[in-house]
Amino acid sequence: MQIFVAHDFSKPPLRNYRKPFAVVAQKYSIEFKFADHIHRGEHLLDQIEDLIVKSNYCLFDVSSPNRNVFLELGFARGRGKDYSLLFHPAQGLLYRLGFTDRFIELPADIRGLRHITYTNSGILRVKLDELVKSLVGTHNLGPAAELWNERIDELLSRYPDGLLMREIAEKLQVEPITIAGFVQQMIQIGRVEKEGKGPATRYLKITEPRRVA
Fold first, then answer.
1. Tens of pLDDT along 32-87?
2. For FRET with 42, which of 11, 112, 142, 151 sits at 20 to 30 Å CA-CA?
3. For the segment 114-173, what is each residue's pLDDT rounded down to a tens digit?
4. What is the CATH number that goes with domain 141-205?
């Protein structure tokens, strides 16, 4: 499994920012691909877009107003990728005194998006562990995965206009991050299609499953 990560390289939100990622990657035998894992000689944006497209999941650290991170977030949303935001809020006093350019709270236009808040490397590691555990589980459940797919299929068959991801999760009584992996699998095999973008995306059952090349 490959997870794309974008963050401010010039001013990382934490000292030794990537250490929690390395610990979790080793534990679950996955790979975090950072936006600077690119090769010279090719257009940087093309390479980053390719990393996003090939990743199973994306993380965007929006702790500070970094334009590159928000550009990459927009591309991932446009491609319909599953993602979460990472957010390390600044202390109010440091922000008011001008000692940090990190946000005190998420900007209003992205506040409603799925996000993971952390305040130190230990919490970041725990939150990453929880996220990856859910993601890995949906990829390695074998026969159990088909049981979940059948539950999702049966649920969506009762809602011709489709459901939001959070609505699917609520009705199946699981976390959205857990069910997202199964829904994505069903999209890939031609059993589910989606309409819209971002949190407003609705997922609909395909009555006659199409062949997927």
1. 999 877 766 667 888 888 889 888 889 999 988 889 999 999 999 888 888 899 99
2. 11
3. 889 998 999 999 999 988 887 776 555 445 567 778 889 999 999 999 999 889 989 988
4. 1.10.10.10
Cα 203 to Cα 182: distance, rounded to the nearest angstrom: 12
Contact 73, 65 (CB under 8 A): no
Q: What share of the chain is helix, strand, coil (3-state, %, to 5)?
A: 45, 15, 40
Q: Residues of CATH 1.10.10.10 domain(s) within the chain?
A: 141-205
Residue closest to 84 by CA, chosen among 35, 50, 47, 117 = 117
Spatial separation of the C-alpha atoms in residues 145 and 171, rounded to whole Å? 18
CATH of 2-131, one of 3.40.50.10140, 3.40.1440.60, 1.10.10.10, 3.40.718.10: 3.40.50.10140
The burial class, CB within 10 Å (0-12 / 13-18 / 19+), for 138 is buried
Evaluate whether 11 touches 63 at the Cβ level (below 8 Å): no
Structure-block tokens of residue 210? 């199409």
